[in-house]
Design a protein that fits this description.
Blueprint lengths: L1 H18 L9 E12 L5 E2 L2 H6 L3 E5 L4 E6 L2 E12 L7 E5 L7 H6 E6 L1 H6 L4 E7 L2 E9 L2
Antiparallel strand pairs: 1-2, 1-3, 1-9, 3-4, 4-5, 5-6, 6-7, 7-8, 8-9
Length: 149
């Protein structure tokens, strides 16, 4: 499993290099790997199930400057899907993206479907990896990202 993820990660990095002209700034291009996923169970508890197992294997290539998001599922690469950067990250806040096309970006949209990327701890202390959280109605996926290129 670990070898398959490493091979898939290498393939994504190569693909990102090929697709680089579609991205605005390479420093904002991230490859994100989920580490954990949970969903809201019928009894109100957070739980892991078959759907969260699948969700935790999807990877993300996120361009923070343009909002382009590519989701990798197995050997397939989906997208790019256009997301809207509703908040740019800085020295003490996350970059927040919401899907384009659902409706105008509002707090309601961000509350039900969003991607948050936390880079600011790296800017301030250089110790922690880039982290991301994907919220999708009742599912939450978390993991780490690496800048590519």
């Amino acid at each position: 499993m670990k070898l398959a993820r490493n091979v898939a990660g290498l393939a994504l990095t190569i693909l990102a290099a090929i697709l680089a002209p579609t991205f605005a700034r390479a420093s904002d291009l991230l490859q994100c790997e989920p580490i954990d996923a949970v969903t809201l169970g019928d009894d109100g508890r957070l739980e892991r199930n078959a759907a969260t197992n699948v969700a935790s294997t999807d990877g993300y290539i996120i361009d923070l400057s343009t909002g382009a998001v590519r989701i990798t599922s197995g050997s397939a690469i989906l997208g790019p899907a256009q997301w809207i950067v509703v908040q740019e990250g800085g020295s003490g806040n996350d970059t927040v993206l919401v899907p384009a096309g659902l409706e105008s970006p509002t707090l309601r949209t961000a509350a039900t479907d969003s991607i948050r990327v936390r880079r600011w701890s790296i800017e301030t202390d250089g110790q922690l990896p880039i982290r991301f959280v994907r919220y999708s109605l009742t599912t939450m996926i978390s993991g780490t990202c690496e800048a590519i290129m």
